[in-house]
TrEMBL record:
Signal peptide from the UniProt entry: 1-19
Segments forming domain PKD: 904-972
Native organism: Algoriphagus ratkowskyi
InterPro entries linked to this entry: Ig-like_fold, PKD_dom, PKD_dom_sf
Keyword terms, alphabetized: Signal
Presence of the UniProt keyword Ion transport in the record: no
Annotated protein name in UniProt: PKD domain-containing protein
Length: 1111
């Protein structure tokens, strides 16, 4: 059996090589997992920090991009994501995995026959604001935990392994991942001492497409590629009488990431484009997000966001530096947001030994990797340090306009097995200060205490770290690890939770939150003969979803009087939907020559949990005793297949004799079941599962066969549509909504039932669209159902309320509907049917219409009312309304925006990053923004004696001398002082190289005439030495464009016509020693500078015979 080790200080802190084989995804994918897992809530003490960057809406689907920040703390080994340390990009989506043991889909993996690996990989998905976790069982079927009613078609571990994934949500929307290698991210890793074979696998499948249920709208995603590598550090040490030696073993891993970077999200309404910086000081081959812009259907850039960076670092070494996000800017001169961080302490080098048990920075200053075990076996300390764990942590967000949000942190604290831990690794927020820039400041304090105490923490620590284990079988034997070897985080990404948290809102009162926690919902230790906390460090059976659910929210005023209180009850004992068992084993030495096989098993359980009851209490503020209240109870009921909420019951908590019921019947309701039609559906689902992902023809063939099947079993179009919706997996489609009252010892009172019916429409009847809406008369009874013959039953007491008459044939947009009163509404659309253009009531001679014209993704530019009077709107460059005109073209509103210290803004662009003497360069002004609008004037100083003051925005020029030029441009606008921007531009002399030989250059093959040596020969002066040729700049200034140079070396006999090209691309080459036959050889070097300019130089090497007859 092959075993691999990959070290990651993340959700799981990794064990020694023999026991814990965990392989995580890349730094960017990992930051997303952490954001999904840690969450932003009072239960973990994490600050909620998210920043929107861009949003584009289409006909039915839309896309957005933002940044999230994880305030838990930075592990010393962390590699900063492409958005900066602690930040993650919330955009698109992905399925990513943490490999346990071997990749599931590779030889001997969990879902392969006769597998050696008995642990399933952990998969995490995130898309369009949704997230979750699953594993694949031994048959390759997804098992979600906790349960979610999603359809997942795996890309691995199935008979058709496309390496692409598909998820369909409850609305029938399809999400496809990794359709090609361009959307898959791979990882390779190898132990530094090469004691084990390396491993390579697909770690992340990025979102490729999103397709609406009717396939009338689509999002597509494109990615760029990059590669980088880093080292994760891990060391082990054996001690004791049985130890072979007590030297430290280096079990560190070098990780190679073949990353993907999101570049474009295309929607039917426009696209979002992302640009990336191609180099980073902290990560060889790494990239950073530089710009996000939104482009509408008219190819106008309607939004542009730039991200600015620097680096954290206590030294200049690459391992010390970490990418730091400094600000987010749009076209205006003042940043949208700028960021401040705790730099009292900066993280040390990534290979630092100053780490606590979770890998955060601590106060240890020694030089030991192996931690302390006992007085006999001393070592490093892994104790947390409250100050240093805040190194480089975000402390303030400054908003344009003078507002800010400042965060203050403290270490976690809590209890483990009844023992209080005053300093627990990881940060929690204890104060947030918010200011609006207008003098208003709000302070929110957070206390994590049990009720009635001013000192006792409500925190519960889930697990304690294990850094080693000892055995005594006649001889002592100790194994220690540099990092904790057991899993310290649960699958929700938390290592501690707080049962009770107070948020004290200064000057207003407080809100108290109470949560389910580990004391009532613990994980289950592994089964088998493996002892908890010892090898092989088996995972637990996790119940993470049962923790962190709010139990009670109480609001109090400044006098500590209760204002409101909401209480929540959950059901966690629903039947299990599926269970996957994982197993880990290890032969562990007990005596110097003997040992035992230790085996532990754990389970991944897929089961739902539901909110069962909510009690809402509003307290009488006049009552001096603060006990009088109005209390309302809501109870919730669910179907037991998809766990959709199908009924809500509301009543007075004190007197439950009268209860208001609201019931929903989805297409999944048992009322809409037919045995014969269910058989058709089962056949379709099997057919669909066997189709390769992305094979639309296969799916369509299955669907057509399915429609034929249901048509042969039911002639009712309404029934067919319901079953077609089931095939589309649009299970959230509502058919019936019913409201009624129940009273003790009295008859049920019907309050009204509404029914929505659907129909096939569009070309080839391939769409399913709303058809009609019906309403029962008050007090009447009768409910919808499908009978045994497959007919849909709509009771006769229902009245037609609304008819959706017509849809357009391209994208299925509604173009006409009729209300119960007979009014007809007609609609037209603009910009590829993405925006409503006009509405007409009762089309015809007496129709009333309103219409609009739009700048897509900005707003209406013209609005015409029912009296045919129009108004027009102009916008500034950042999409804000600037001028409003009436129907006669008069300005009726002028809107101006001012931010403190704001000035006009622009940037200088050049057609190339640098140039050579005499080369034409184009300089232009870009992103020009004048806060007050209106016209501006421009002037240039080219730093060579040339000045342009003719208001031009573009200059084409060249320079006759080399040097660094400071090109200046100035903008003049009303109400502002002139604003100057400078661009430093390097001009170099044209590239010119020469070649010299180091070593023998003229060689007598007879050995009679002394060898002549090249002009740069110093020590290479033996006739038998190989000759080196060097390319040098002909003059110190003849560098051409500086940067990365490439060299092409070639040689040939002077009598030949074909050059032989060598593989070397450096500035020096060794002449091939096998070329020593008589002849004069020409040597040619072609150098290319950073701008692509080339220069060629020649030299020679001559082999001759002074005696033609010598051999």
């Amino acid at each position: 059996m092959r075993k691999f080790l990959f070290v990651w200080l993340g959700i799981f802190l990794i064990s020694f090589a023999q026991a814990q084989d965990v392989h995580p995804p890349s730094a960017d994918a990992m930051s997303i997992i952490r954001q999904i897992s840690v969450g932003v809530n009072y239960y973990t003490g994490a600050a909620g920090i998210s920043i929107p960057l861009a949003n584009v809406s289409g006909r039915e689907l839309g896309a957005s991009i933002g940044l999230n920040y994880n305030s838990f703390g930075h592990r010393v080994q962390d590699v900063a994501s492409s958005e900066g340390l602690g930040w993650s990009l919330a955009a698109g989506g992905s399925i990513t995995r943490i490999v346990r043991g071997l990749p599931d889909d590779q030889e001997d993996g969990f879902c392969t026959p006769d597998k050696d690996d008995k642990e399933p990989d952990l998969f995490f998905f995130s898309f369009m604001g949704r997230s979750g976790k699953f594993v694949l069982d031994q048959q390759g079927q997804p098992v979600l935990f906790p349960f979610q009613p999603l359809s997942i078609k795996p890309g691995i571990c199935r008979s058709v392994n496309s390496n692409s994934w598909e998820i369909i949500d409850e609305n029938g929307v399809t999400y496809q991942f990794g359709l090609s290698s361009l959307e898959r991210e791979t990882i390779s890793s190898r132990i530094s001492d090469n004691s084990e074979p390396g491993i390579s696998y697909v770690s992340t499948w990025h979102l490729s497409k999103v397709i609406s249920a009717n396939k009338t709208d689509e999002l597509s995603f494109s990615y760029g590629s990059g590669s980088y590598s880093f080292v994760n550090y891990l060391f082990t040490k054996d001690d004791g009488a049985c130890a072979i030696n007590s030297t430290i073993k280096n079990r560190s891993s070098t990780v190679y990431v073949h990353a993907k970077y999101l570049e474009t999200i295309t929607t039917s309404g426009g696209r979002i484009e992302l640009s990336w910086n191609n180099s980073r000081d902290d990560l060889i081959g790494g990239k950073s997000l530089s710009e996000v812009q939104v482009v509408n259907l008219e190819e106008d850039i309607v939004s542009k966001i730039r991200l600015s960076y620097s680096y954290f670092g206590s030294c200049q070494d690459r391992n010390c530096k970490r990418l730091r996000l400094d600000s987010i800017n749009d076209l205006q001169s003042i940043p949208l947001y700028s960021f401040e961080y705790n730099t009292t302490f900066s993280l040390p080098s990534r290979d630092s030994k100053s780490i606590d048990y979770l890998g955060l920075y601590n106060a240890y200053t020694g030089n030991e990797w192996i931690p302390y075990f006992s007085a006999t076996y001393p070592g490093a300390t892994r104790n947390p340090d409250e100050d240093k764990m805040q190194a480089d942590l975000l402390t303030s967000i400054n908003h344009r306009g003078g507002g800010y949000s400042t965060f203050y942190y403290e270490s976690n604290d809590g209890y483990r097995d009844g023992v209080f831990k005053s300093t627990v690794s990881g940060n929690r927020i204890y104060l947030k200060v918010s200011a609006d820039g207008m003098g208003n400041i709000q302070r929110n304090f957070y206390k994590y205490l049990v009720e009635g105490s001013t000192t006792q923490s409500s925190g519960i620590l889930f697990r304690s770290p294990v850094f080693g284990y000892s055995r005594d079988g006649g001889y002592d034997y100790l194994t220690r690890f540099s990092h904790a070897s057991n899993e310290l985080f649960d699958l929700n990404g938390a290592n501690i939770g707080y049962s009770r948290v107070e948020e004290i809102i200064e000057g207003k009162g407080k809100t108290i939150y109470e949560f389910t926690n580990y004391d009532d919902h613990p994980d289950i230790d592994a089964a088998g003969n493996a002892t908890s906390g010892e090898p092989p460090f088996v995972s637990v059976t996790s119940k993470f979803w049962e923790r962190g659910n709010v139990k009670k929210v109480t609001m109090k005023d400044l006098n500590n009087r209760i204002l409101t209180q909401d209480s929540y009850e959950y059901t966690f004992n629903h039947p299990e939907k599926s269970v996957v068992t994982g197993e880990k084993s290890l032969y562990l030495q007990q005596y110097c020559s003997q040992g035992d096989l230790l085996v532990g098993t754990y389970q991944i359980i897929s089961k739902p949990f539901t909110l069962q009851k909510k009690i809402s209490e509003i307290y009488d503020q006049i009552d001096p005793s603060n006990v009088k209240k109005i209390s309302t109870t809501e109870e919730y009921f669910y179907d037991l297949t998809n766990f959709q909420r199908i009924r809500t019951v509301s009543y007075n908590t004190v007197d439950a004799s009268e209860q208001y019921n609201s019931a929903i019947k989805y297409i999944t309701s048992t009322a809409y079941n037919s045995t014969s039609l269910n058989s058709c559906l089962s056949t379709y689902n099997s057919c669909y599962k066997n189709c390769p992902i992305g094979d639309d023809a296969c799916v369509q063939s299955c669907y057509s066969t399915y429609l034929s099947c249901i048509s042969s079993n039911s002639s009712d179009a309404r029934t067919k549509v319901i079953y077609a919706l089931k095939a589309k997996k649009a299970i959230n489609t509502v058919i019936e909504q019913r409201n009624y009252l129940t009273r003790t010892s009295q008859a049920l009172v019907e309050l009204g039932t509404s029914v929505s019916l659907y129909r096939f429409d569009g070309p080839g009847s391939k769409w399913i669209v709303p058809d009609t809406q019906w309403q029962s008369t008050k007090g009447s009874t009768g409910l919808t159902t499908i009978n045994a013959s497959g007919f849909f039953i709509l009771p006769s007491n229902f009245q037609l309320m609304h008819t959706y008459n017509e849809y357009e044939d391209i994208y299925g947009r509604l173009v006409q509907e009729t209300t119960r009163g007979g009014d007809v509404k007609a609609y037209t659309y603009l910009h590829d049917n993405t925006i409503l253009g006009s509405t007409t009531i009762n089309p015809g001679s007496y129709g009333m219409s309103t219409s609009s014209e739009f700048k897509p993704l900005v707003g209406a530019t013209k609005v015409v009312d029912i009296n045919n009077r129009s108004s027009s709107i102009e916008y500034d460059l950042v999409g804000r309304q600037r001028l409003v005109y009436d129907h006669e073209g008069n300005i009726v509103q002028r809107i101006r925006y001012h931010s403190k210290d704001e000035v006009p803004n622009f940037s200088i662009k050049s057609s190339s990053e640098q140039a050579i003497v005499g080369q034409n360069v184009t300089f232009s002004l870009d992103d020009i923004f004048v806060p007050t609008g209106g016209e501006a004037e421009f002037a240039w100083d080219m730093d060579n004696g040339t000045v342009y003051d003719d208001n031009r925005q573009e200059v084409v020029t060249s320079y006759s001398n080399e040097g660094m030029y400071s090109i200046k441009a100035v903008i003049s606008a009303n109400e502002f002082e002139p604003e100057i921007k400078t661009l430093n531009y390097l001009v170099s002399d044209p590239l010119q190289i020469s070649i010299c030989a180091d070593g023998p250059q003229v060689i007598d093959l007879c050995g009679i005439t002394p060898v002549s040596y090249g002009s740069c020969t110093v020590n290479n002066n033996s006739p038998s030495n190989n000759t080196q040729f060097y390319a040098n700049f002909a003059q110190p200034s003849s560098t051409g464009c500086v940067g990365f140079y490439t060299y092409q070396w070639q040689y040939k006999k002077s009598t030949d016509s074909v050059w032989t090209t060598m593989t070397v691309t450096d500035s020096n080459m060794t002449f091939p020693p096998f070329v020593n036959t008589e002849g004069n050889y020409q040597v040619r070097c072609t150098a290319t500078d950073g701008c692509g300019n080339t220069n060629v130089a020649y030299s020679y090497i001559n082999y001759y015979k002074s005696n033609p007859s010598c051999t």
